[in-house]
Design a protein that fits this description.
62% helix; SSD; Multidrug efflux transporter AcrB transmembrane fold; MMPL_dom; transmembrane; 4 domains; alpha+beta
Length: 812
């Protein structure tokens, strides 16, 4: 394809055709056809985009925040398969809401308090989504007391059916609470609060619809906390549904931060380009990409859960990253003397291959998240991939057509000419020195030392949560304060790790099983982080002692099957499966930190290896802590695969475009350094790798490679025109380099505001993305020319030597 070289001094080295279109002949022919049709039917293109925007915009308005406990579970993990086999028995251990009703004026043994507790229990009972048959409160019939008398064992409900609030009945309730053995679980240790335990159903059995966690959390707030909390009564609520509810409420904050980001982007783009036409066109196309993304998600039947709600911003950010190149290239072509239409077509040609490859790399980075077998991450990957797909359409095809009408303002052209003046190139001349051998070697050695130090720090990076409570929220948030209330006033931790003991049918209470389970509980209670344990055999021992005059010497397991069967009949049915082939052993943990779960899992697996067999099999795991342990395991096992796929596929795409392994190394190595540095920062700041933070790694590679592809693509232009490496890089910095710098700073400013969010995981994401946007930009501008200089030294010499080296590099 013919190349044209303008005579304008400010753009004397600029061609209107990407050399990669010549190197990739088939792609060049495709580009020619697309360009001819796109700019030959501009009104048709705009009409089609307008109709699609109306359709997808309407669907975007229908999109609602969604969340699901099942999406957070790695469904094919062995732990989860074991849990699902006994789901109906173990459901109350997993998706559970705990509501504490605290009195600040005395204890719970007053008619007023007990009446209040009854009204709140009834209120919770009728909230859609509550598993009513497993709801527990002092007022429910499944919470009973047991007593040994001369006539044998007696039992009854803690609050009797004839309760009338009289002093006699109040005293009876106080005695029953002590006899129920529920102090520390349903009644606080200081007797100033009582709890309501409400397991949730993922699917409403009447309507068949999935539980709307946002609506459920709002009902808890309006029907319980707002309605009953007064100066003398405090309500504390914890559970997965409340975390999701608080995150969904935080979406409105995220929308505000998004608006700030758009405003900052507009300011920086206009400051850089001095062109309202280009600025507004960019913001319009990037905003339209977000609308299209949301609309496509609704068409696909997907929602926007709290963990992927930041993805639309990333779509906007990626769009801005690429659109800045359009603004810059358009201005350069106009300054070179071309008409608005010619400049728009030249911009399309110059950015067709690098823009497409860069966006495909973004899509690859996100799509590799699909290897992680957790639905919420997989849906996030789909969400982000859809976002990149619509950016390809809006940025690659719509923006050039809009710019062919809008053009660049005279002020924008004058601003571009000012940037090209020699007296404005001091910083660029300094950066161009990194193409010289000594500077290049110093830069690479510094990066190597930084990489080594970061690698040592990153070894402390943990998988999972590193803080108690809900790390997604601030430690001083209301939810985490409620968690602290439960931890300080109740002996049974909300972090439950359940181990399933499988036996032959009818044998779960037999002596051989009892012996092994008793040993297991003793060993687990000596593991740091395990505060207590519970199983079928605790109440069975008390029942055996009760049938023997209350003599505590009988509170033990027994070989006598008749005695054990008699004791077994008097224990709660939720401590074993209906056919007595499984009993859960509950381990109450001090927290669900990554190191605590790792220690507990290792101890349980060691015991299982030693004792599985002879009719007893220990299976992991259920309970909220057990499911989180499975999630951490899946993330740990999949992270390496995901990173290998990201780097491998992106490297292949870069290799395909530039046909040189040396160039591929020069572009990919800075990305690897950035990833390791990011992991070191996460380790130092106490941020674990989990569902909320894992996408940062994939995003960092995708955004970073954009910078490298655009810089080397432009550098290749000048090298092919006969310039030495230093001269070619200086010209690259004047054009694409300045656009990359503005992009990095713009994106960093946008996400930096997230650090003020009330949602901690958004603040963490903002901090990490700010670092990655800036460091990837620095790495691309400094490391790529330095590595090219060292890997392809012939490019530093005379034009003839440079052409020979370039030909050698192209040959591989």
């Amino acid at each position: 394809m013919k190349q044209r070289f303008p005579s304008t001094p400010a753009a004397s080295a600029i061609s209107d055709t990407d050399v990669d279109l010549v190197h990739h002949g088939k792609v060049g022919r495709v580009e020619t056809r697309v360009e001819r049709w796109l700019f030959g039917h501009r009104l048709t293109v705009l009409t089609v985009f307008a109709l699609l925007s109306v359709f997808l915009g309407w669907h975007a308005l229908q999109l609602r925040p969604t969340a699901s406990f099942e999406k957070m579970v790695p469904s094919r993990h062995p732990y989860i398969a074991n849990y699902l086999a006994y789901e109906s028995q173990l459901r109350p251990l997993n998706n559970l809401v705990r509501i504490a009703v605290e009195t600040t004026t005395g204890d719970i043994y007053t008619p007023e308090y007990l009446d209040l507790l009854k009204r709140i229990t009834d209120e919770v009972f009728y909230i859609p989504g509550v598993d009513r048959g497993n709801l527990q409160s002092l007022w429910t019939s499944n919470v009973q007391w047991y007593e040994v008398t001369e006539d044998g064992l007696r039992s009854g409900t803690v609050i009797p059916s004839n309760f009338d609030g009289s002093p006699e009945r109040i005293r009876e309730v106080r005695v029953n609470v002590g006899r129920s053995n529920r102090i520390g679980s349903l009644v606080a240790s200081d007797h100033r609060s009582a709890a309501i335990l409400a397991p949730l159903l993922e699917v409403d059995p009447q309507t068949g619809e999935s539980l709307d966690y946002g609506q459920f959390a709002r009902r808890l707030e309006t029907l319980v906390r707002d309605k009953y909390q007064t100066d003398g009564v405090r309500i504390h609520i914890t559970g997965f549904s409340k975390i999701i509810g608080d995150l969904i409420d935080g979406i409105f904050d995220i929308a505000a931060f998004f608006a700030v980001t758009v405003l900052l982007t507009a300011v920086v783009l206009y400051w850089y380009s001095r062109c309202w036409r280009g600025t507004l066109s960019t913001l319009f196309c990037c905003g339209l990409a977000v609308v299209w993304q949301l609309g496509v998600l609704d068409v696909l039947g997907l929602g926007l859960d709290p963990y992927s709600v930041l993805v639309p911003f990333l779509t906007f950010a990626i769009g801005v990253s690429h659109a800045v190149q359009n603004i810059n290239t358009m201005a350069a072509e106009r300054v070179a003397g071309r008409s608005v239409m010619e400049a728009a077509r030249a911009t399309f040609r110059l950015l067709f291959i690098p823009g497409t490859i860069a966006l495909v790399c973004d899509a690859v980075g996100f799509s590799t998240l699909m290897v992680i077998d957790i639905r919420v991450i997989q849906e996030l990957a789909i969400n982000a991939s859809v976002g990149v797909a619509v950016i390809i359409v809006t940025k690659m095809f719509l923006l050039p057509v809009i710019m062919s009408y809008a053009g660049s303002s005279p002020r924008a052209l004058e601003q571009y000419r000012r940037r090209m003046r020699p007296e404005r190139q001091a910083v660029n001349r300094f950066l161009a020195r990194f193409t010289e051998p000594r500077w290049a070697a110093a830069a690479v050695l510094s990066a190597g030392a930084l990489l080594a130090g970061a690698f040592l720090q990153s070894r402390d990076l943990k998988i999972g949560d590193l803080d108690p409570g809900a790390p997604e929220l601030r430690q001083d948030s209301r939810y985490n304060r409620d968690v602290q209330f439960f931890l300080s006033h109740y002996s049974t931790s909300p972090d439950v790790f359940a181990v399933m003991v499988r036996t032959p049918a009818g044998e779960c209470g037999s002596y051989p099983v009892a012996v092994v389970v008793d040993q297991f509980q003793w060993r687990m209670e000596n593991v740091p982080g395990v505060e207590a344990s519970s199983s079928l055999f605790g109440p069975m021992k008390r029942a055996i002692a009760g049938t023997n005059g209350g003599d505590l010497r009988w509170a033990a397991i027994t070989r006598n099957r008749y005695i054990s069967n008699a004791g077994h009949k008097r224990v709660p049915s939720d401590t074993y499966s209906p056919d007595c082939s499984m009993l859960p052993v509950l381990l109450f943990l001090a927290d669900h930190k990554a190191e605590t779960l790792t220690r507990v899992v290792a101890a349980v697996e060691d015991f299982a290896r030693e004792n599985n067999g002879d009719g007893v099999e220990f299976l992991l795991a259920a309970g909220n802590a057990g499911i989180e342990a499975a999630t951490n395991t899946v993330i740990k096992e999949s992270e390496a695969t995901m990173l290998a796929l990201v780097y491998g596929i992106v490297a292949l795409l870069v290799l395909w475009e530039f046909k040189s392994w040396r160039v591929t190394v020069a572009i990919m190595l800075p990305l690897f350094v950035t990833s390791v540095l990011c992991e070191a920062i996460m380790a130092r700041l106490g941020i674990g790798v989990k569902v909320a933070t894992l996408p940062v790694v994939a995003l960092g590679v995708g955004i970073g490679v954009d910078y490298g592809i655009y810089i080397y693509n432009r550098l290749e232009h000048y090298l092919e025109q006969g310039l030495t490496l230093r001269a070619a890089y200086l010209e690259t910095l004047k054009t694409t380099g300045s656009a990359v710098t503005v992009t990095g700073v713009t994106l960093a400013l946008g996400v930096m505001t997230w650090t003020f969010s009330t949602i901690k995981f958004q603040a963490d994401m903002g901090l990490l993305l700010t670092f990655m946007f800036l460091w990837n930009m620095v790495g691309a501008i400094v490391m790529i020319p330095a590595l090219i200089s060292l890997l392809m030294p012939g490019l530093r010499g005379s034009p003839a030597d440079k052409r020979a080296a370039a030909a050698c590099a192209k040959a591989g």
